[in-house]
Amino acid sequence: MSLDAVRILSVGSCDAQSRLGYYEASISSQGQSTYYTAELADTTANRCVLQGMIDCVKKLTSPSAIVFSVSTKLGSATRKKSPNKDLLLELEGLLKQGGHEATYDVQEGEGRSIRRTVRTAKGFDHKLLPTAARVSYEGELSVSHRLDSHKNRQPFIYVIPPIDFGWEHLPTVEDTLKAIKRDEEIRSDGGELYDLAYRSEKFSKDWEQAVTIAKSMGMSSDFRQEPSVLWMPSELQMEYGFVFKEDNNGTTYVVSHIEMPWLESISMTRDILNNRPGGIQGTYKQVKWATDIVARAIDSYAEVNQEIPELANLCTRLADVLKLQREAGWIIANREEIRLRMKRKGTGLVGICARSWNENPLVRLLSNEEVQEMREFAF
Prior knowledge:
Layout: E1 4-14, E2 21-29, E3 32-40, H1 45-58, E4 64-70, H2 85-98, E5 101-106, H3 111-118, H4 131-152, E6 156-160, H5 173-186, E7 188-189, E8 192-193, H6 200-216, E9 228-233, E10 238-245, E11 252-256, H7 269-274, H8 284-307, H9 312-323, H10 328-333, E12 342-344, E13 350-352, H11 354-358, H12 368-375
Parallel strand pairs: 1-4, 4-5
Antiparallel strand pairs: 1-2, 2-3, 6-11, 7-8, 9-10, 10-11, 12-13
């Protein structure tokens, strides 16, 4: 008789003084994962893990080939003085009674990774976690949000004179991509990917963006040698960047989300941006900041457009006027005023915050008719 393939992940946590703890666990089968949790008293962290495994086995309705994924060794039921002998024996009895076969995947030191995977399962709701766990989870979300925000910003670009030495010590873009893909293959399980810091799809897109940025800064020929990857410390993890050399004149391009102020003195980026016709003018930092400000302002116009369709044409016009601004200093100085903010009345009526409209310097560049049309929706 064939057995159902099942993976059970279980992690536990316990306060050493109060001996109050809880487990978080998931059952994965046929591409579906379900989340379970329970609070426990007079326990330890390892006993929480075991209890999670036991409760998950109890939920299985047919004989299964089970892989238990845990982050620590849980002892042996054959040892006389094992502190967890009662739970280990109970688990063994349940496996035998249900006709299950079990193997153990002990990923020592990977408790955080397993917990994150468990929390991707169907049914997880952080509001149902014990207070300490909920606070910890919300803190992790905050850090994750900061990391995502950091990654979504436009990267820094440094156009510098040729670098001739040391390339042999850097991993290439090609080799790094292969390593990330290999990690994905190793850590995947039946199509369900474990939490990974780096994904091949994101890495490839970042590399394509780096090349596009370099071309916008004047790169006109192929690479003199294999493009390479830089690794730099950041919050919680290492961040990658790219460095590559143009074949035409050896100009080297460094593209990274981590700022490298020590390259400013030799970088030609500022001169390139200042001499570029039609773009935002200013120092490299100013141009980068102003570009982000413009993007956020245009996003605010799009939100107004979505909530108040009658202002679609006017929002488009306002965005066009903003895009004509060339002085980075002016954009930075007016970064708060050029955004539009919505306001909702108690009746549910949505409009534009009158203050954000009245203080917007772009309004002065619109026609009287356009201004009057917008005022009808401001309160």
